[in-house]
Design brief:
This protein folds into 2 domains: about 40 residues, Orthogonal Bundle (Arc Repressor Mutant, subunit A), CATH 1.10.10.10; about 80 residues, Lrp/AsnC effector binding domain/regulation of amino acid metabolism (RAM) domain (Alpha-Beta Plaits, 2-Layer Sandwich), CATH 3.30.70.920. Strands 2-3-1-4 form a 4-stranded antiparallel beta sheet, covered by helices on one side. Strand 2 and strand 3 form a beta hairpin. It has 5 helices and 4 strands, in the order αααβαββαβ. Helix 1 packs across helix 2. The longest helix has 14 residues. With about 160 residues, it is of the alpha+beta class.
């Protein structure tokens, strides 16, 4: 179900994306709503799937996973059942952080994290073994991190 977002909803989404630990009272103060009205909106946004999850953002280097890899992957055949199998495999691998089904020379672009190149190589060897529909992949090793995030701009310029 897709929610129709008003200016209060968009403002709430902007706030909780920046700090998911704020109370409904603190959010309400910022948007001009009561704690109960803010709580109702937060519950609806979660129930409607607009807020997909509330998570902690972990510093990968501090957690021992400092290496990122950007992977362009091609498949042999784009049959729905084969793509679904590959997507399930990606979803089951914590090291695969993001998966994009894309246009262009690659079929998928992945963001992968690993403690080192050997761990990455082992993951990709397992992917090839488990998914014979993968034709090939190319890897870019991230040398420096300029920006990392999942923030979705939802507020308009006038807000």
């Amino acid at each position: 179900m897709r929610s129709k977002l008003d200016r209060f909803d968009r403002h709430i989404l902007d706030i909780v994306q920046r700090d998911g630990e704020l109370t409904a009272d603190a959010i309400g103060d910022q948007v001009g709503l009561s704690e109960s009205a803010t709580s109702r909106r937060l519950r609806r946004l979660k129930a409607d799937g607009v807020i997909a999850a509330t998570v902690a953002v972990v510093d990968p280097a501090a957690a021992g996973r400092p290496t990122f890899f950007i992977v362009a992957l091609e498949v042999e055949r784009e049959r729905p059942e084969l793509l679904a199998r590959l997507r399930r495999w990606f979803a089951g691998e914590d090291q695969v952080q993001q998966v994009y089904y894309v246009t262009g020379s690659a079929d998928f672009v992945l963001i992968v994290t690993a403690p080192d190149v050997d761990s990455y190589d082992a993951l990709m060897a397992r992917m090839i073994a488990d998914n014979p529909n993968v034709r090939r992949f190319t890897t870019n090793v991230v040398l420096g991190l300029g920006k990392r995030g999942l923030f979705v701009p939802v507020r308009g310029d006038a807000e």
